[in-house]
Automatic annotation (TrEMBL), chain A:
Entry keywords, A to Z: Membrane, Transmembrane, Transmembrane helix
InterPro entries xref list: Na_symporter_ssu
Domain Sodium symporter small subunit: 9-84
NCBIfam families: Na_symport_sm
Keyword ATP-binding: no
Pfam hit, one: DUF4212
UniProt key word Isomerase: no
Residue spans crossing the bilayer: 12-33, 53-73
Organism of origin: Alishewanella agri BL06
Listed name of the protein: Sodium symporter small subunit domain-containing protein
From TrEMBL, chain B:
Localization in the cell: Membrane
Membrane-protein topology: Multi-pass membrane protein
First-listed, main subcellular location of the protein, grouped into a coarse class: membrane
Family (UniProt): Belongs to the sodium:solute symporter (SSF) (TC 2.A.21) family.
TM segment ranges: 6-25, 53-71, 77-95, 115-133, 153-170, 182-200, 247-269, 281-302, 392-416, 437-457, 463-485, 497-521, 533-558
Organism: Alishewanella agri BL06
GO molecular function, one term: symporter activity
Record's protein name: Putative sodium symporter protein
């Protein structure tokens, strides 16, 4: 039982770590590059405008998709590694 | 064949498909009615979620908003997609593991309190009912423009169709019709966009065309657009915004509001496993992104096309003669969504920004005011006509707009009826109700919800635009934080959760009422709704994020001074965190 609890705790902290990393990226591409840091990216031009505009209208959405699939792939693997997946 | 006949064929054809699915996918048990039996393929659920989520607002209004606001309205693009990251990581897999039927189910069990459950039911019903009004009125508009019927008659037809598949099939019928509706709406949205992108940029992929080169002038499309709008006194399309705090909070409100909307969350109860719930969120966003990556392209291209129509020889030359205006302007003038007034009596349509900064230049050119008002909502609907596309594309747009409105309406109605039959009737009033009785109750509450929604659609309270802010604000400030704390904290207890939900809900609702009128009654606003009056420049639309923070803070504060939740509740929290032992959604 103690083993199981330690195992479960390790699984949960691995999940939390993954969530924190993902949400940092999530925030950086949208709130960062798309909004707050846009003036800093103004020098990098993309098709008639700047990189910040691209992140606000396309880049952040593409990153969101990549993040969810990465998270799903990684967690579904962790489920198995920790023996906590659904049979 | 007349345009009317073409529209009729497309709309009736799509309705026949929905009804066919309804007959095929009848629900025989409460489990089928609430969660489609719990066996929906994750990709298919992703598609259904996309249709469930993308409403008349996404389909009809969003591109128009972006066309008018340019970069500043990118908030909708990020806000209405970023919520899926939160759903995939913070809510969906754990709520799927919990394995019951409704959102208040989880809140009631996790916070071991029927009070918490009732607060959740109230938030759910207010958020969903306000949201469904917008869908019904959207369906009414589409009907009156494309089928030339009175919009009330249109609403009745829409209600009968939804009634057929939602009451008969419950979640099961709704799921499979939403898949069909997604296919209809995405085809309808992308086909005109592809043609327009080809015409303007030579690129058949609209998202690439957006950052491509304008074929006619040889300069980048967005640069060309900036040059034209600047010449007419408008703000640059790509201009940055100064109030970044409000932009951040508005985007955040839309994101956590999305993640907290019950009709979206319950879609993740229909997949077989926790792992599927994670994949399904990804697929949902892929299907949503097909539209959301197309929308900003449609927005900029439609704006450019509109200005090119009015100023055929460029913005520095004379505007088009009113007598020579294209047919699509004549068609939309009939609906009152485009209005022309010849203020300087020169017979031409001057369209520009009527702002003080531009007044001198306007006077120089002999203009006496902006003469053309264009409602944002028509851009997507008029797109095929502006680009001279064949009549069948217009029929497709009609069917697509209705698919977007009806699919979302059905999802909302299911969320409402399950809250009533499962949480109120079975959960509180009559816990001993039989399976058959509950299924009947679910069907009756669905029918009542449809009647109420239809009535509200016919008599829309004069605040249809504001209510969406209310729905997102409530979902963001009350439901999302309660669910998240229920999963990620073992310490937050019943009193903390109730106090938090109420604090978040009330602060948000009061902030909205202060600026938009108490209970939205016109003329009762305490402050004028202008940026100077907003607290720290935070608009009422953006307050949901602040309400959520208040919710978190109050819940933790109250929980820390009251007793920790009992062991069985802490065990429940443990169990939702680990996928093992979930099985299919439990019958109970």
């Amino acid at each position: 039982m103690a083993d199981h609890n330690m195992n479960a705790a390790a699984y949960w902290s691995a999940n939390l770590r993954l969530i924190v990393i993902s949400l940092v990226i999530w925030a950086v591409v949208s709130y960062g590059f798309g909004i707050l840091l846009r003036p800093m990216l103004a020098g990098i031009s993309v098709g008639g405008t700047d990189l910040g505009f691209w992140f606000a209208q396309q880049g952040s959405i593409l990153t969101f998709i990549a993040l969810i699939f990465f998270y799903a792939w990684r967690m579904n693997k962790l489920d198995k590694e920790f023996g906590l997946d659904e049979e | 064949m007349s345009q009317f006949a073409i529209n009729l064929i497309f709309v009736l054809g799509s309705f026949a498909i929905y009804i066919g699915i309804a007959i095929w996918a009848r629900a025989g048990s409460t489990k089928e009615f609430y969660v489609a039996g719990g066996g929906v393929n994750p990709v298919m659920n992703g598609m259904a979620t996309a249709a469930d989520w993308m409403s008349a607002a996404s389909f009809i209004s969003m591109a128009g908003l972006i066309a008018a606001g340019g970069y500043a309205n990118s908030t909708y693009l990020m806000g209405w997609t970023g919520g899926y990251v939160l759903l995939a990581m913070l809510l969906a897999p754990y709520l799927r593991k919990f394995g019951k039927f409704t959102v208040p189910d989880f809140i009631g069990d996790r916070f071991y309190s029927s009070g918490a459950r009732l607060v959740a039911v109230a938030c759910l019903i207010i958020a969903s009912v306000t949201y469904v009004i917008g869908q019904m009125t959207g369906a009414g508009v589409a009907f009156s423009r494309f089928l030339e019927v009175d919009s009330n008659t249109g609403l009745m037809i829409a209600a009968v169709v939804v009634f057929a598949y939602a009451v008969l099939g419950g979640m099961k019928g709704i799921t499979y019709t939403q898949v069909a509706q997604y296919i209809v709406l995405i085809i309808a949205y992308t086909i005109p966009a592809v043609f327009i992108s080809l015409q303007l940029t030579g690129n058949f992929l609209p998202p690439l065309g957006l950052f491509g080169t304008h074929v006619e002038s040889g300069v980048p499309l967005l640069q060309k657009l900036d040059e034209i709008v600047r010449e007419l006194g408008f703000q640059d399309y790509t201009a940055d915004v100064s109030n970044k705090l409000n932009m951040v909070l508005f985007t955040l409100s839309l994101m956590i509001g999305t993640a907290g909307l019950p009709h979206v969350i319950i879609r993740f109860f229909t997949v077989p496993k926790v792992a599927d719930a994670r994949w399904s969120a990804g697929w949902a966003l892929v299907f949503i992104a097909l539209l959301y990556l197309t929308a900003p392209a449609v927005a900029s291209m439609a704006r450019l096309n509109l200005l090119n129509t009015i100023y055929p020889a460029g913005p520095t030359a004379d505007a088009i003669q009113y007598a020579e205006r294209p047919d699509w302007i004549k068609n939309w003038e009939k609906t009152g969504l485009i209005k022309f007034e010849d203020k300087n009596n020169d017979g031409r349509i001057q369209h520009y920004n009527d702002a003080p900064a531009f007044a001198e230049k306007a006077a120089e050119r002999g203009w006496a005011g902006n003469e053309l008002t264009v409602n944002n909502d028509i851009l997507v609907l008029a797109n095929p006509e502006i680009a001279n596309l064949p009549g069948w594309v217009l029929g497709l747009i009609a069917a697509g707009g209705l698919a977007a409105a009806l699919s979302t309406a059905a999802g909302l109605l299911l969320a409402i009826s399950s809250a009533v039959s499962h949480d109120l009737i079975k959960g509180s009033i009559n816990p001993n109700i039989s399976e058959k009785g509950e299924l009947l109750a679910a069907r009756i509450s669905m029918a009542v919800a449809i009647v109420v929604a239809t009535w509200l659609g016919m008599n829309p309270p004069g605040f249809a635009a504001q209510v969406v802010a209310l729905a997102f604000g409530i979902a963001a400030a009350s439901i999302f934080p309660a669910l998240m704390m229920g999963i990620f904290s073992k310490r937050v207890n019943n009193s903390g959760a109730i106090a938090g939900m109420l604090a978040g809900l009330l602060s948000t609702v009061i902030y909205i009422f202060l600026y938009l009128g108490w209970f939205f009654i016109p003329g009762t606003a305490t402050f004028a709704n202008t940026p100077d009056n907003w607290l720290f420049g935070i608009s009422p639309l953006s307050f949901g994020a602040v309400g959520a923070m208040i919710n978190f803070a109050v819940a933790f504060a109250v929980s820390s001074v009251t007793a920790a939740p009992p062991q069985r509740v802490q065990d429940l929290v443990e169990s939702v965190r680990y996928p093992r032992g979930a099985g299919k959604a439990v019958d109970h």
